[in-house]
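Hi support team,

I'm opening this ticket because the web form for multi-chain structure prediction keeps timing out on my end. I have pasted the exact lines I submitted so you can reproduce it. The total is 305 residues across two entries, so I didn't expect it to be a heavy job. Is there a limit I'm missing, or should I split the entries? Thanks in advance, R.K.
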Amino acid sequence: MRTAIILVIALASVGTSASATPAIISDYATQAKQANPGFTGFAADRGKTLYFRETLQNGKKISCATCHSADPRQAGKTLAFRTIDPMATSVTPSRFTDSKKVEKWFRRNCDDVFKRECTPLEKGDFITYLSSLK
Amino acid sequence: MKKILLLGAIALMGISAGQIMADDGEHHEGGKRPKQLARSLSQAPAVWKTECGSCHMAYPPGLLPASAWKRQMDTLKNHYGSNATLTPEDEKIIRTYLTGAAADGKYATPSQSNKVEAPRITSSGWFIHKHDEISPAVWKRKSIGSAANCQACHAGAAKGDFNEDGVNIPR
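Hello R.K., no limit was hit. The queue was backed up. Here is the completed structure from your submission:
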């Protein structure tokens, strides 16, 4: 019962991102609030901008969309020929349900694309965007 | 072509496919494929398959010697341009498995032209010899992409089956 109440509070505090695992989103919300007390919630539009933000790596423009597909409802493909299940939670409901896996891929892929770690705000926005697609 | 006929003849003589794989290239200097490649992958830890198989095919440990797998595991922060770092627990399990089931022998050792990168399977003497009839244009076909895409031509690659008879080079 107490867990249920906590979940409801967590969901209410982050607004629109109900379809990704609430615990993961609320963890990022807590971290985002710690980093910036003015944090008011995650936004799908900022997540979308991040998804398509291009950087130059070894002379090639890359973004999340390079491997994950320009339409997150479609399957992607790694640079090493592996198919990647669609990122949109409406198509792949298991996305963003395993916090260890989520953190692993943010750690690796943010380093590959942005040459740095992603912030809790970026992670929450990213998940919110991919959870908002019908 | 001559080799294919020879293999066919041996198969007809009733020798098992497993033996052919293990003996393949025995008399061809530099073309000897590591024998451990024929080893079953059933002992592989689950984490090896999920972690090494998420961006590319999980390359069977018999494709590289232990020294090369050590280099791979030591350089995951920059794994051919990508961050492929693991949790310490997963890293330990995978390192133990790869080095334990690795290939040995001088033909298994890849040449290393690039000191920054971990050694590539495709720079092993046996690999180059086995693929010497494949022109650069074939590797670049959209259906193949590069020599790292074993499964494009070897359908059983992920199971460790690289038998020449099963090769189908896509257009």
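A quick check on our side: The interface with chain A takes residues 53-57, 81-85, 87, 145, 148-149, 151-152 of chain B (CB under 8 Å). Let us know if the file doesn't open in your viewer.
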